[in-house]
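Before surveying the methods themselves, we first show a specimen of the format, giving the amino acid sequence and backbone structure tokens:

:::
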Amino acid sequence: MSRGYAKSAERNQAARDALEPLADGERPRAVTIGAFFAGVVALLALGSAIFALISSRKINGQDPTSGQISQLFIVTAVMVTMAVGMWKAKYWAVLGFQMLLALFLVAAVAGLLTASTVLQIVGTAGLIAVLGTLFYAMVKAMARIQMPERRARQ
């Protein structure tokens, strides 16, 4: 058991040593994609909130409540904060976005289990593939973002 742990610790250390810290102003590609995605979601949420405020459309036969509209503004604020944080390559923003990706992945898997058409299955499987790839790519990006902080503490 301890031999296996030692080998694992050696591989982990080799992976850490192979990482290069980010240059000033550098942002990993996965983080840039995440920032773009968060910005698009923020724009969609803001547009939905504004549309709900100015239109006379009903949701399930009822006017949208102020609580429903305020939820859209909260989503907008959170996603804008994450987009700006990721654009500046902040660790907390990438970690928060990864948490959201994990929730989206769980929801997509649940959707895949209840899919009733081939189109739903293909679309949901594609979504899982894209979100999973982005999640995986952000793990290495987070390690590179955190590197200067780790070295300063050692």
User: Anything to note?
Assistant: Residues 150-154 have pLDDT under 50 and may be disordered. The CA atoms of residues 105 and 129 lie 9 Å apart. DSSP finds five helices and no strands in the chain. The radius of gyration is 20 Å.
